[in-house]
Specification:
By secondary structure, the chain is mainly alpha-helical. The protein folds into two domains: 39 residues, no CATH class; 43 residues. Helix content is 64%, strand content 0%. It contains four helices and no strands. Helix 3 runs antiparallel to helix 4. The longest helix is centred in the last third of the chain and has 22 residues.
Length: 95
């Protein structure tokens, strides 16, 4: 979760203050947009959005027409594929 635009450093006695202060320094150094890409914030946000879409569709088909049911199932599959693609690790073969 990115800190507020006008976020101020916390005192070090507070729980999680070191991580938050480090995030604030990185955001100020890199800029908010670059920090989001560097930290993986965008991919996490995309995965959360995909799951939200899937949950909003519910467990049952809403359409009564068979053609629309097919389209609804295809949409669900596309959402699940997006979620799976975002969650897969990038593997690299070494030696």
């Amino acid at each position: 979760m990115p800190p507020r635009r006008n976020g101020k450093p916390w005192k070090t006695r507070t729980a999680g203050a070191d991580e938050r202060n480090e995030t604030l320094r990185a955001v100020r150094h890199l800029g908010r947009r670059l920090w989001k890409r560097w930290s993986g914030y965008h991919s996490r946000s995309l995965a959360e959005t995909a799951i939200s879409r899937l949950k909003r569709l519910g467990e049952r088909l809403a359409a009564h027409d068979p053609v629309r049911q097919v389209a609804e199932v295809q949409i669900r599959c596309a959402i699940l594929n997006t979620y799976n693609r975002l969650g897969m690790p990038n593997t690299v073969a070494l030696a």
